[in-house]
Predict the structure.
Amino acid sequence: MQQESTHPSSVKKPKWKGRLLATLVLAIGVIGFVGLVKSRPEPPKKPTEDSTPLVEVAPVTAGDVQFYVASQGVVAPLTRTTLSAEVSGAVVDLSDAFLAGGHFGAGDVLMRIDPLNYQVAVERAEAALAQRQIEYDGSVRLNKQGYRSATELSSAKAALASANADLVRAKRDLERTVIRAPYEGLVESRATELGNFVNIGSQLGVIYATDVAEVRLAIPDPDLAFVDLPTAVESGDGPPVTLSGSYRGALSEWDATVVRTEGQVDQRTRMVWAVARVDDPYALTVASEGHTELPMGTFVTAEIAGVSMSNIVKIPRPLLRAGDQVIFVDGERRLRFRNVDVLRTDEDYAYFYGDQLEEQEILLTRLDSPLNGMLVRTSADLESDDSDQQDASSGVGSAAAQ
């Protein structure tokens, strides 16, 4: 019979002790992990971003506004003269000033036509006048002696008068061989040369006066309500005008005054023409020394001083939507759409009466899809939020210090 061994190493351990040990190790690991997780510092919390649109606004108030009317035109002389020959003959002399751009004074000789034939005509007229004077004097003596009738005396008197008229005409023709400037000015063009033969009525050249220049300014009918122009039958100065243009590569300005309107509406453009006058455009007088000259033909823009109105709101024109709509921001920082009665618009601004103003701030930022009543934020709100955060941070630091 086989005998069982009783050695301690041959005895098997119970299974429940191994399981208990494994469970104990796992529990210790879990507790350690939880402890590590709890001891880890919390990550800083990110502030919640505000999705409310941030916009720019500007205060708007009503006040007095001086209106201006813009126009443009070309500088032209008030007086332009086409010189024509009053007698025929060859051109024998031309003044050095009688060329395009030449400056001349009043009474200066510009050119001469051969005077020989006209000098001869004067001498003949003088001789004829002397002969008629002798005949008339004889008729007077014979009439007194009874040898000549009153009719014959009257005929001699008429012949004398005719001879005197012929002499006046001959002298006048002789004077017309000398072409003199009727005023101070400049030569625009010359149409003849030395030695040319000219007939009565032949054009000799074009000159213009330099004392005054004018600019015709077209004004649309809607703008007439904002400028006080003289009527076609009125005389006197109208509103002042500032002319601007480029001269010698630099932008210059000249003072002018509206002196008249042309009294009719242009049938093609439906505009009214106002005429602005500039005194001494070439700065030739002592009073104009140091002023920039304004040559004829210069293209200028004009700003006509208009009327002044009270209780007017002026806003940049791009802020006007759909012709008459403006977006304001109310006291609760919400968008408010307002339709206004636009008084006038120009290139840069729109104007309307202040009694239509309910809010005091206007929206400057262009939003993609603005809605009436939409909540917005402004830079003032942003500064207020930053200030609050700084105050809160300061309070936390003080508490930590304590």
Summary: Residues 1-11, 390-402 have pLDDT under 50 and may be disordered. The chain is about 25% helix and 35% strand. Helices lie at 16-39, 116-145, 150-175, 379-401. The first helix runs from residue 16 to 39.
